[in-house]
């Protein structure tokens, strides 16, 4: 048997498939015929090995309570060793129905109502939502855009915010969504030493860890034993293999006390097992999906180069922020001469594009748009042509 789903140019009609990306435009205030490049799932069929594993499991015809044993952990561990030079222990593993779910549990486990939680805006907007929804306060160590067209951390501000706001918990996004940074070893050590010094726990959202185009992904917990003791590392095959709908993630918590507190919150919301299909998909992805993964990664590299060339050649006033990781391009529209509301109006109602507005990632995202490039190049080309026609040239 060989991998069948390697034609990433193939346009798959996802409409009328209960697809959040395509089927809910009107319900979310968008034109019915909008072209969606917003939510972070791919328009590619997943590995045929995953398809086959799910079909085979479905043919068993019984979908009772299911759990996995040591071979599941070994499959996940081997992927982490091979791709991230990190060997998590089996006892560290806690499975949850998603990374945002895990972050919400960690907030409840390690902070009290009214406490401040530190994030780095502009950042994945559910971070702010789950902090606020759980009665905690958002505090930002806001990233700044350097002359090198990359975002950077203000470390003095990072430490000062921890002291001034009595921070107990920090959410690290690595690689960073939406600004595309892959944090270096030196940057992570600066963060880690500050957090150790002030007894701050670190939730590390590594969900995009398999999309690295410059540098290499470093698991924060792998750098020092002191970091391991304060870390909650959140991983999932969902972004890598387009499996978000299977609702499963692998969370690694080395510290026994922290793991116990986390599990107590998991018990409190009534989660004991995950859906069997997510478990089956994860095993198949990490054990048999390597060929698909490498081809997909090459295709997205091509898409990124296509966007870079198109922006530089055609989109006067638009700048593509240098992307090191993820498949989410951060475009700076501040040079096109449009106010935020007018920019949104032209993108949505003139160009008929559904992107993620930068302002939802925090005030520092105003004037930016996030575009998902994990799609056939023909779709990406059409989207960029619309931006050129209706936003840059004001047709």
Major sheet characteristics: 7 strands, mixed
Please tell me the overall pLDDT.
97
Q: What string, H for helix and E for strand, traces the elements in order? A: HEHHEHEHEEEHEHEHEEHHHEEHEEEH
The helical percent reads: 25-40%
Strand content: 5-15%
End-to-end span in angstroms? 51 Å
Provide the number of structural domains. Answer: 2
Instruction: Please give the order of strands in the largest beta sheet.
Output: 2-10-9-8-7-3-4
Shape: globular
Give the class-level CATH name of the largest domain: Alpha Beta
Q: Write down the oligomeric state.
A: single chain
Q: State Rg.
A: 21 Å
Extract low-pLDDT stretches.
none
CATH homology superfamily name of the largest domain: Type I PLP-dependent aspartate aminotransferase-like (Major domain)
Number of strands: 15
The CATH architecture of the largest domain would be 3-Layer(aba) Sandwich
Concise synopsis of the structure shown:
The radius of gyration is 21 Å and the shape is globular.
Describe this structure as you would to a colleague.
This protein is α/β, with parallel strands linked by helices. The chain folds into two domains: 20-47 and 290-392, Aspartate Aminotransferase, domain 1, CATH 3.90.1150; 62-288, Type I PLP-dependent aspartate aminotransferase-like (Major domain) (Aspartate Aminotransferase, domain 2). Helices cover 39% and strands 13% of the residues. It contains 13 helices and 15 strands. Helix 3 crosses helix 10, helix 4 packs across helix 9 and helix 11 runs parallel beside helix 13. The protein is globular. It starts with 19 loop residues before the first helix and ends with a helix. The model has no long low-confidence stretch (mean pLDDT 97).
